[in-house]
């Protein structure tokens, strides 16, 4: 009877609410501790440090529909950040001298004001201006063919997802033809100077293709570099491994494949206290396309806003952000498992 009631309740919830119900049910006969209980056990507390990274999600539109996308992005998503909100982001970046700006999506390049924003933000002067590109957007349409030159002109730091250095695994996770298009895009980026010893940085991101933790980042980077160089004469700077968090499409995959309980136990058993110190929510603020503020990109996807009355860029208050409590939930185990995980790779 209780199970039927829960199923009925889930069917009436929004997708983010449904995910939170799944994550926060007292699961597996009480054998899975809450993330808060795990922190308390190790006498740990998560508090913000100085704000170093201002991560802006320009919208959820994307030219791809990847199997494990935590943003649930795709060509049918119409959410886009308004020019008004983009201008407010620029004001915050300038006023508070933010060191790093991280543009993400979807495919951020598909936003009609992407180039305008990059030009305006570049004029402010940013130490590390990141664009998270899926690579295939560069070769998706003629209007994007000049993106490598545009990236280079503004000294953008490109961080791109490439699930594996072999075609079969990449296409299985991201769709048929994605690997070949990614190789073409990487060659275009190399041609304008990305991935070498110069100032133009090209980093790749690896997400596991299943319900398991990523392999050692350093060893995997060597494998990627060796294979891509020998097979395609492609260079890149760093490989970042990121653990798949149990949200959005990956959560649906875990449930459909009946791996959810096992995966959650894997994350809990791999909890690493040393990773807590450097999780991205301590120095990053995530801005959704509609201006709402989140402790991280993953909280954004669950619509868990910052614990502050100043939870929108209209109300942005730098001091208030520093004094807030970071909002945690069960998915946070993904960032503290093994070597830890952040948008810049391992952290422990």
Structure description:
There is one protein chain. This protein has one domain: Aldolase class I (TIM Barrel). 39% of the residues lie in helices and 10% in strands. The protein is built from 15 helices and 8 strands. Strand 1, helix 4 and strand 2 form a beta-alpha-beta unit. The chain is globular and about 55 Å long.
Strand content: 5-15%
What is the spatial order of strands in the main beta sheet?
A: 6-5-4-3-2-1-7-8
Total domain count:
1
The total beta strand count reads 8
Round the Cα radius of gyration to an integer and report it.
20 Å
Per the principal axes of the C-alpha atoms, what is the gross shape?
globular
* SSE arrangement, N to C: HHHEHEHEHHEHHEHEHHHEEHH
If helices are DSSP runs of H or I spanning 4 or more residues, what is the number of helices?
A: 15
Stretches where pLDDT is under 50 for at least 5 consecutive residues are: 1-11
Structural class: alpha/beta
How would you characterize the largest beta sheet?
8 strands, mixed
What are its keywords?
alpha/beta, 15 helices, single chain, disordered N terminus, globular, about 350 residues, TIM Barrel
Structure described in brief:
About 40% of the residues lie in helices and about 10% in strands. The chain has about 350 residues and is α/β, with parallel strands linked by helices. The protein has an 8-stranded mixed beta sheet.
């Amino acid at each position: 009877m209780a199970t039927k009631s829960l199923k009925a309740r889930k069917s009436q919830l929004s997708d983010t609410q449904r995910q939170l119900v799944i994550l926060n049910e007292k699961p597996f006969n009480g054998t899975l501790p809450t993330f808060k209980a795990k922190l308390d056990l190790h006498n740990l507390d998560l508090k913000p440090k100085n704000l170093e990274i201002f991560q802006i999600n320009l919208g959820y539109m994307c030219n791809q529909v990847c199997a494990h996308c935590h943003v649930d992005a795709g060509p049918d998503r119409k959410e886009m950040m308004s020019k008004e909100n983009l201008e407010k982001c620029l004001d915050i970046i300038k006023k508070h001298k933010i060191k790093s700006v991280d543009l993400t999506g979807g495919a951020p390049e598909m936003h009609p004001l992407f180039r305008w924003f990059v030009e305006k933000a570049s004029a402010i002067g940013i130490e590390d201006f990141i664009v998270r590109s899926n690579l295939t957007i560069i070769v998706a349409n003629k209007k994007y063919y000049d993106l490598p030159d545009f990236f280079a002109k503004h000294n953008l730091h490109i961080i791109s997802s490439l699930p594996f250095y072999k075609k079969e695994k990449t296409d299985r996770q991201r769709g048929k033809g994605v690997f070949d298009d990614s190789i073409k895009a990487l060659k275009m980026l190399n041609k304008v100077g990305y991935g070498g010893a110069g100032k133009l940085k090209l980093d790749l991101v690896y997400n596991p293709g299943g319900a398991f933790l990523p392999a050692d980042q350093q060893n995997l980077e060597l494998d990627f570099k060796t294979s891509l160089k020998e097979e395609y004469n492609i260079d890149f700077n760093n490989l970042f491994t990121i653990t798949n968090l149990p949200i959005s499409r990956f959560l649906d995959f875990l449930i459909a494949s009946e791996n959810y309980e096992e995966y959650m136990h894997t994350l809990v058993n791999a909890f690493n206290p040393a990773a807590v110190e450097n999780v991205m929510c301590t120095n990053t603020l995530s801005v959704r396309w509609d201006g709402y503020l989140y402790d991280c990109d993953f909280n954004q996807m669950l619509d868990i806003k910052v614990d502050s009355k100043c939870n929108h860029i209209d109300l942005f208050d730098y001091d208030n952000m520093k004094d807030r409590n970071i909002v945690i939930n069960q998915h946070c185990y993904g960032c503290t498992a093994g070597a830890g995980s952040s948008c810049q790779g391992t952290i422990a």
